[in-house]
């Protein structure tokens, strides 16, 4: 004896996962697979829950962290101004101090004759317009 199955459409949500249009299958087609043995009850899925889709994080691009050309030019110009201020100061004539800048932050490295010369170099660099902070911890006292 054959059972009558109502012809209700069952919508599969595979389209949501694959990006294709949703697949519609009639209940009659789902109830009578071609390889089903006679006398077995078919399995009909009434509803497939939608998956929880969370957005992907943005793609990491190292170029986003690199300073722009304007920032690099400004840092180079600022470093030149700090070098000029250090070399023109009379107490820092014997000091061998290198200047590095990034985003207005100045890092001084090298050698100074005394602790007073080291402190004076940090003060002189900090007095230059555009300097946000000065790190002088890398200056060695000879």
Describe how the helices and strands are arranged.
Blueprint: E1 9-12, H1 14-18, E2 23-26, H2 27-31, H3 69-88, E3 96-102, E4 105-112, H4 115-126, E5 133-141
Parallel strand pairs: 4-5
Antiparallel strand pairs: 1-2, 3-4
The helix content, as a percent range, equals: 25-40%
Q: What do the pLDDT scores average to? A: 75
The number of distinct helices, counting runs of at least 4 residues, comes to 4
CATH level 3 topology of the largest domain:
Histidine-containing Protein, Chain: A
Q: State the CATH class of the largest domain.
A: Alpha Beta
- The backbone outline, from C-alpha atoms, is rod-shaped
Report low-confidence residues grouped into runs of 5 or more.
5-17, 20-24
**Nearest-angstrom radius of gyration?**
37 Å
Question: Using DSSP, what is the number of strands?
Answer: 5
Strand order of the largest sheet: 3-4-5
Q: Report the structural category.
A: alpha+beta
Largest sheet report: 3 strands, mixed
CATH architecture of the largest domain: 2-Layer Sandwich
SSE run: EHEHHEEHE
Measured by DSSP, the beta-strand proportion falls in 15-25%
Number of domains: 2
Distance between the termini: 104 Å
């Amino acid at each position: 004896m054959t059972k009558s199955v109502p012809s209700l459409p069952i919508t599969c949500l595979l389209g949501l996962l694959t990006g294709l249009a949703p697949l519609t299958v009639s209940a009659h087609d789902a109830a009578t697979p071609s390889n089903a043995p006679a006398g077995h009850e078919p399995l009909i899925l009434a509803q497939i829950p939608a998956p929880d889709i969370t957005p992907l994080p943005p793609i990491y691009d190292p170029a986003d962290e690199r300073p722009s050309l304007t920032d690099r030019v400004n840092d180079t110009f600022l470093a030149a101004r700090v070098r000029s201020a250090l070399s023109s100061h009379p107490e820092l004539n014997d000091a061998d101090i290198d200047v590095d800048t990034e985003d207005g932050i100045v890092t001084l490295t090298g050698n100074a004759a005394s602790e007073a010369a080291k402190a004076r170099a940090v003060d002189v660099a900090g007095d230059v317009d555009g300097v946000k902070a000065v790190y002088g911890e890398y200056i060695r006292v000879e």
